[in-house]
Design brief:
- Belongs to the phD/YefM antitoxin family.
- With 64 residues, the chain is α+β, with helices and mostly antiparallel strands.
- It contains two helices and two strands, in the order ββαα.
- Strands 1-2 form a two-stranded antiparallel ribbon.
């Protein structure tokens, strides 16, 4: 199974063994959440770009 294996010592968890694919999926989720937190902070600081401006920038790069 892909369930984590908890290794204990004297009845307390000391380590976890994970399937590599599960570990990688967890890392990707963590990275995405960190990027979302950064984006939200940037928006709160007024550093956002409107949808129309973003669209224009992307289309400008594609059309070149």
């Amino acid at each position: 199974t892909r369930r984590p294996l908890v290794i204990t010592q004297r009845g307390k968890g000391v380590a976890v063994v994970l399937d590599v694919a599960e570990y990688e999926a967890m890392q990707e989720k963590i990275e995405l959440l960190e990027e979302m937190r950064t984006a939200e902070a940037q928006l709160a600081a007024g550093l956002g770009v409107s949808n129309e401006d973003a669209r224009s920038q992307v289309l400008g790069r594609i059309i070149k």
